[in-house]
Each structure stands twice: as C-alpha cells, then as structure tokens.
Specification:
Elements: H1 5-32, H2 46-58, H3 60-66, H4 72-88, H5 105-109, H6 146-154, H7 181-192
C-alpha cells in the first residue's frame, strides 16, 4: 500500500481527516466541557431588552396584545418563539450564523465566531449553515432599526433592491406597522444575534422615515 501513489494518498487523506477531527471536534469539546449551557432566560441581556422595549414603543397596540409589558420574562418568550419561527420558515436555508476565520470574513460580517457563543439553548440546534444567498446573520442584531426589519420582512425588495427573499406578510395583521406575535418575535430574535458582543452597535434613536431607505443587506 505504501509503495503506490493511491496508497500514499489514502494514508495522507486519513491522516488529514484525523487531524481535522481532533482539532475541530475533540479539542473544543475538552476546552469547553465545563462551560455551563445557558438557558433562554439567561441570554436575555440589556441590548436585547432595549430592542424589545423599543418594539413596545413603536407598535404599542400589537405589543400589548401579544406580550403585554417588555419584561425579561416576556423577552425570553419572544426569543424562544422567534427561534422556532426562524427554523420553521427555513431562514437557515439562505442565511448562515457562523463567521469563519477565512477569506477576510470578519471584515464583511463582524468578529469571527467563537465556541462559547453557541453554549445556550437558543443555539440548539446550531444554525451554522453553508449557503449565503443572504448575509450571515450572527452579527446582524443592532445594525438596523426595528422599523427597518418590519418593512424588510413585510416586503424585502422595498428596502433591499433585487432581494430574492420572499415576503412574510403572515408576520403582520395588514401592514408593516402592525406586526403580530410572530412578527414581533422574529424581529426580537434577529436583534438578539450578536447582542452579547462588545461590538454590538450603539443603538440610535431611529425614526420610521429616516432609516427606511438605509443601505440594504450586503
């Protein structure tokens, strides 16, 4: 076997596979085996609460009907529902949630993803993804206003030219200024992504008009 090219390639291939498995699976497991997995309630942070409270101000009638008050407990409920909607609607088919340490991805999407970021209930199952028909979303939170996200879910093409993303009109009771429980939940979830990092953008006081035509997702 060692005297033929095919044999050498086979051994080499098995060796690289073993090394990749060791470095990408075994080592991270050993490094983070004692890191406790956070519950949904534990991942609710001040950045997410700010966004959740902002939803209650922008859409008071819808918010009061579906969540009542902007408490940490209600925010956790919205995050859990938003995660289920994200999976159920197949958002992970076109969006990844993993900034890889290659090809200058950090310049395009934000800080390279770290193992500890996925050690919580909202990352089960993980949504690493492989396709990027749309942008990676692991650092999307805080980059745009809640109004922008509402309009984007209602009619993506109105704020992101030539977007292949379908309209999600069933997230609303009529117009983009009337998000229902699903709409409020999915916006909360998207705004949570990356909210645990110091690089989370400082929130600006957006107005409904100022940001409608801001730069589209890239």
């Amino acid at each position: 076997m060692f005297e033929t090219k095919s044999g050498i390639l086979l051994i080499g291939g098995l060796g690289f596979f073993f090394f990749a498995f060791l470095s990408n699976a075994v080592v991270p497991i050993l490094m983070y085996q004692d890191l406790p997995e956070q519950t949904v309630a534990e991942v609710v942070n001040q950045n997410t609460l700010f966004q959740f409270d902002d939803l209650s101000v922008r859409y008071p009638e819808s918010f009061k009907e579906h969540f009542g008050e902007a408490t940490p407990e209600k925010c956790a409920e919205a995050l859990e529902l938003g995660r289920k909607i994200y999976i159920g609607e197949g958002c992970w088919h076109c969006h990844s949630q993993f900034v890889r340490p290659v090809s200058n991805e950090s310049q395009r999407w934000g800080p390279v993803s770290a193992t500890w970021e996925y050690q919580n209930e909202l990352q089960r199952p993980v949504m690493f993804g492989t396709r990027r028909v749309g942008p990676d979303l692991s650092r999307e939170g805080g980059r745009r206003s809640n109004d922008w996200h509402a309009v984007h879910f209602f009619e993506p093409g109105s704020v992101s030219a030539d977007s292949p993303m379908p309209n999600y009109s069933w997230f609303f009771d009529g117009e983009p200024d009337r998000p229902n429980k699903r709409g409020l939940a999915i916006i909360t979830y998207v705004q949570w992504l990356g909210s645990w990092l110091e690089s989370y953008p400082a929130y600006e006081q957006y107005t409904p008009i100022e940001r409608m035509m801001e730069s589209p997702l890239e």
